[in-house]
Amino acid sequence: MSDKSSSFGFESALSELEALVTRMESGELTLEDSLEAFEKGIGLTRQCQQALAAAEQRVQLLMERNGQSDAQPFQSGDASE
C-alpha cells in the first residue's frame, strides 16, 4: 500500500507545484505571496525529486532480482526532449 501512497504523494505534489507555477506566472500575486509560493514550490520540488529517486532505486533492485543487473539510462517516449 505504501507504493500507492508514495505515488499519490508524488502526483499530488506535482499537481500542486504546477498550480503554484501557474499562479506565479499570472502576475497577480503580491511580492510576499510570490515569495511564499516560491518557498513552497522549492519544498514540493524536493519532495518530487525524493520520490523519483526512491522509484529509481526500486526499479534497479527489481532489475537486479530478475538477473538484469546492468543499469540502462531511462529514456522517455517524449520526442521533444
TrEMBL record:
<dbReference type="Pfam" id="PF02609">
    <property type="entry name" value="Exonuc_VII_S"/>
</dbReference>
<dbReference type="GO" id="GO:0006308">
    <property type="term" value="P:DNA catabolic process"/>
</dbReference>
<keyword id="KW-0540">Nuclease</keyword>
<dbReference type="InterPro" id="IPR037004">
    <property type="entry name" value="Exonuc_VII_ssu_sf"/>
</dbReference>
<dbReference type="GO" id="GO:0005829">
    <property type="term" value="C:cytosol"/>
</dbReference>
<keyword id="KW-0378">Hydrolase</keyword>
<dbReference type="GO" id="GO:0009318">
    <property type="term" value="C:exodeoxyribonuclease VII complex"/>
</dbReference>
<comment type="function">
    <text>Bidirectionally degrades single-stranded DNA into large acid-insoluble oligonucleotides, which are then degraded further into small acid-soluble oligonucleotides.</text>
</comment>
<keyword id="KW-0269">Exonuclease</keyword>
<dbReference type="InterPro" id="IPR003761">
    <property type="entry name" value="Exonuc_VII_S"/>
</dbReference>
<keyword id="KW-0963">Cytoplasm</keyword>
<comment type="similarity">
    <text>Belongs to the XseB family.</text>
</comment>
<protein>
    <recommendedName>
        <fullName>Exodeoxyribonuclease 7 small subunit</fullName>
        <ecNumber>3.1.11.6</ecNumber>
    </recommendedName>
</protein>
<dbReference type="GO" id="GO:0008855">
    <property type="term" value="F:exodeoxyribonuclease VII activity"/>
</dbReference>
<comment type="subunit">
    <text>Heterooligomer composed of large and small subunits.</text>
</comment>
